[in-house]
Design goal:
The complex is a heterodimer of chains A (243) and B (265). With 243 residues, chain A is α/β, with parallel strands linked by helices. Chain A contains eight helices and nine strands. Chain A is globular, with a radius of gyration of 18 Å. The model of chain A has no long low-confidence stretch (mean pLDDT 87). Chain B has one domain: Orthogonal Bundle (ABC transporter involved in vitamin B12 uptake, BtuC). In chain B, helix 2 packs parallel to helix 5 and helix 7 runs antiparallel to helix 9. The N and C termini of chain B lie far apart (38 Å). The chains are: A alpha/beta (243), B mainly alpha (265). Chains A and B meet through strand 5, helix 2 and helix 4 of A and helix 7, helix 8 and helix 11 of B.
Chain lengths: 243, 265
């Protein structure tokens, strides 16, 4: 698929309040198709809250508009692929990865034997994420890196307009992470907007096209080099101690 | 070995077991997966209040009132559970206590508390032929809901956010599931009893979870363990002259411990 560069996710004046507190204040961001837009910030800066507002999961002010190739707001509902930090799956859960994939991506009841055509389709898609062999594994027994690839495969099936990722803080080893970033690099070449909460500043510096530094509100945004050189960044990450 | 089936009431009871156990085993799979066994237990306890309201209102078919009350009770409990304003188990504990205390208070006000003791332990041998049709209808309706809504129930339970991104309406599925559990629990309580209903709901699934490796085997083994224990429990209770419901639960518990020892490492 081509790099279109025209699809744009416009997050306009998002404010989230809860229990009398303002968790996210007047955040506006534009994220473009074919680019990786990273949101960074210290713990408790409102990153996950902002993402929940973008996914329309919590009450918020402001709006999220998705514009089509010609720049006008898209009338159809955008397809969203969401990769959460984790799922509510404990070690004893009998669900296999295939069951979860079937439940999220098809109408076939996931507790019945899965027809060959659905299985073959998923296997082909999962192979792209080195996850075809994981389909028959029990979900509760996956490693952090395996989970990330499975969640990415589920999020990108069917092909989404916007991929939203909440990167896990821990549990993924270095090899797993670099494979994950490789896959993201491949996905960015396709027709989708990629928005990621990242805790890995080296990744952001190397791969992100745009960065927003958040602490309740946007403290700095723009190209990674500019944001990393900003006073706000120095204050949040260098002087504040979090890296 | 089969002379127990010479009696009409035993044949009816066997049918009741063959309908009721799959119904509860099916729902139990997600009750256990969603860690809602305390929730369903509280729901069972609230049946006392449901009956009391029915009796006080002078409604002859108090079971309808019980089901309606169960649905409202479950939705209220679920709303507070979802709001995460307080610790879930505390909220459910409070609901459970109120369900029992209010029911007992209201029933005792009429001075006929003893008449409702059968509600505590139930009696599966009391099922009538007409009631078998109610059970068959409930099983068919639940199986249909399961076919249409299982993916939604499952998707929302493992991640409401991912479910929402895939177009599932999280709150709708979450509430629909607790309503389904409420209706079935309230319908079944007369035969299983509010002290035992939760065991029959969760033990087949809990046993299956010890050994199952996919959603298919989880469901299949839940049904097999449930049916095996139901029929064996009915048979054992007949030959030993003991109450049927508790015997079934004891067999289910034995299956649970057996599978626990075999559980996948």
């Amino acid at each position: 698929m081509s790099h279109c560069g025209l699809h744009c996710l416009k997050i306009e004046h998002i404010t989230v309040r809860a229990s009398g507190q303002t968790l996210v204040e007047d955040v506006s961001l534009h994220a473009h198709c074919g680019e990786i837009t990273a949101v960074i910030g210290r713990n408790g800066a409102g990153k996950s809250t902002l993402f929940k507002a973008i996914l329309d999961e919590i009450p918020h002010e402001g709006e999220v508009v998705f514009t089509g190739h010609n720049g006008t707001p898209s009338k159809r509902r955008p397809k969203i692929g969401y990769v959460p930090q984790s799922l509510n799956i404990d070690g004893g859960n009998p669900a296999a990865v295939l069951d979860i994939a079937v439940a999220y991506t098809s109408r076939w009841p996931a507790f019945l034997p899965v027809p060959g055509r659905i299985r073959a389709r998923l296997k082909k898609h999962f192979a792209r994420f080195d996850a075809a062999d994981l389909l028959d594994k029990q979900a509760g027994r996956l490693s952090g890196g395996e989970w990330q690839r499975v969640l990415l495969a589920i999020a990108t099936y069917p092909h989404p307009d916007m991929l939203v990722l909440d990167e896990p803080v821990s549990g993924v080893d270095t090899a797993g992470l670099s494979r994950f970033y490789e896959l993201l690099e491949q996905l960015r070449k396709e027709d989708m907007v990629i928005l990621i909460i990242s805790h890995d500043l080296a990744f952001v510096r190397a791969h992100a096209d745009r960065v927003a530094l958040l602490d309740g509100k946007v403290l700095a945004k723009g190209a990674p080099a500019d944001v990393f050189a900003s006073d706000a960044f120095q204050k949040a990450f260098v002087m504040g101690g979090e890296r | 070995m089969f002379e127990w089936l010479a009696y009409d009431f035993m044949r009816t009871a066997l049918w009741a077991v063959l309908l009721l156990v799959p119904l509860l085993s099916l729902l139990g799979t997600l009750v256990v997966n969603n860690k809602m066994s305390f929730f369903s237990d509280a729901l069972g306890h609230s049946a006392l209040t449901g009956v009391a309201i029915g009796v006080l209102a002078g409604v002859s078919e108090y079971r309808l009132v019980m089901v309606a009350f169960g649905v409202v009770f479950a939705l209220c409990m679920n709303r507070i559970r979802r709001s995460r304003l307080a610790s879930t188990d505390t909220v459910i504990g409070v609901f459970s206590s109120v369900g029992v205390a209010l029911g007992l208070t209201l029933l005792s006000a009429r001075g006929n508390l003893a008449n409702y003791q059968s509600l505590l332990v139930g009696d599966i041998l009391s099922v009538t032929a007409d009631e078998l049709w109610v059970l068959a209808g409930a099983l068919a309706a639940t199986a249909l809901v399961w076919l249409v809504c299982f993916n939604g129930f499952f998707a929302v339970s493992i991640s409401p956010s991912v479910a929402k991104s895939k177009g599932f309406r999280s709150a709708l599925y979450d509430n629909l599931f607790v309503v389904l559990v409420a209706v079935v629990v309230m319908l079944a309580i007369r035969w299983v009893g509010l002290l035992l209903i939760n065991a029959m709901l969760i033990l087949p699934a809990a046993s299956s979870r010890n050994v199952a490796r996919s959603m298919r085997s989880y469901h299949l083994l839940s049904l097999i363990f449930g049916l095996f224990s139901g029929v064996l429990g009915l048979w054992l209770s007949y030959y030993n002259g003991v109450a049927t419901g508790p015997t079934i639960i004891l067999v289910l518990a034995a299956v649970f411990f057996g599978t626990f020892l075999l559980r996948k490492k």
